[in-house]
Amino acid sequence: MIEAERKARVHDPEGVMRQLDARASGRSDVYRDTYYDDPAGTLEKEDRELRVRTVHGPDGTLSFLTYKGARVDEASGSKPEDETGVMDPDAVHAILRGLGYIPVIAFEKRCRNYKFDARGREMVATLVRVPEIEGTFIELETQTVEGDLLPALDDILAVLGELGISSADLTTELYTDAVRARRN
Length: 184
What we know:
Organism: Streptomyces stramineus
InterPro entries: Adenylyl_cyclase_CyaB (IPR008173), CYTH-like_dom_sf (IPR033469), CYTH_domain (IPR023577)
Strand order of the largest sheet: 1-5-4-3-2-6-7-8
Number of strands: 9
Structural class: alpha+beta
CATH topology: Hypothetical Protein Pfu-838710-001
Oligomer: single chain
Protein name: Class IV adenylate cyclase
Number of domains: 1
CATH architecture: Beta Barrel
Distance between the termini: 35 Å
Strand content: over 45%
Radius of gyration: 16 Å
CATH class: Mainly Beta
């Protein structure tokens, strides 16, 4: 599956949150993401990602192992994604290190997630704050297949427009890159 996604800066977070609250119930979670690569940085050089995410939410803690392939759409940064739940994140971290991967960056994201249907698609909107990065972002995504990617991205842009997000606010900058820049 491909995660069709657009990310944008949000200039009126409270206004966008009110609009999303009108569409669906929101859920606040704190993500702790750790990205791995081999010592040569092969995954990053090939535009791929390997991540362990632990989500702390009101109902408890869940963890996931995610692999993202290289971008299939440069304009949006959309990537094929495979993800699975993890019962013991400490064991997964140990396994990845045992296989020769090293943690290259870890950071926290404070998120408010909304799931809703729009334009015949199940969508997830996430308002994101990364304490190390200035501002609020919105990620709007849906799962699709390669032949449906461009129509899915068009639907995402339409919904973002309904939320008052303009094309000038779109970004493909990765949080990992922004956090690295901030730390340097």
